[in-house]
Design a protein that fits this description.
The chain has 5 helices and 5 strands, in the order H-E-E-H-E-H-E-H-E-H. Strands 4-3-5 form a 3-stranded parallel beta sheet, with helices on both faces. A two-stranded parallel ribbon has the order 1-2. Helix 2 packs parallel to helix 3.
């Protein structure tokens, strides 16, 4: 794919990942995690969960949880869910990880519960009955 794009006249920019082949636009994950935690706290949630990708979102979780702790909160272990990298990347392909995560959320649902989810596609999947 890289070779094909480089040979073409198409301008290519990679979003959210650093590329050694193309220009890249990166995201400040630390700031995003901080703002997400602050937003949920400001909305009045006191039971906040986190869903992240194993071995990918450790820094996001660390910053997110640190912000909660500074406000007298923490992510309850039953609301901390890790999925394999790429599990929520496709709405078309159902994966075992997505199904397990949705089941765990439903089984552990409590009032005043909010989750920060690592990826918008996965978040949509969690809110969908067709995923």
């Amino acid at each position: 794919m890289v070779d094909l794009l480089q040979r073409s006249s198409a301008r290519t920019v990679v979003i959210t990942q650093r590329s050694k082949f193309f220009d890249s636009v990166l995201v400040d994950n630390r700031l995003g995690a901080l703002l997400a935690a602050q937003h949920l706290i400001e909305l009045g949630y006191n039971n906040i969960g986190f869903i992240g990708q194993t071995n990918v979102d450790d820094e996001k979780y660390s910053v997110f949880n640190h912000c909660l702790e500074q406000n007298g909160l923490k992510v309850d272990s039953k609301n901390l869910l890790w999925v394999n990298k790429g599990a929520g990347e496709s709405l078309i392909k159902q994966t075992e990880d997505v199904q397990k995560t949705v089941k765990a959320i439903v089984e552990n649902f409590q009032s005043n519960l909010a989750f920060w989810v690592y990826n918008d596609v996965f978040a949509v999947c969690l809110n969908s009955t067709t995923c």
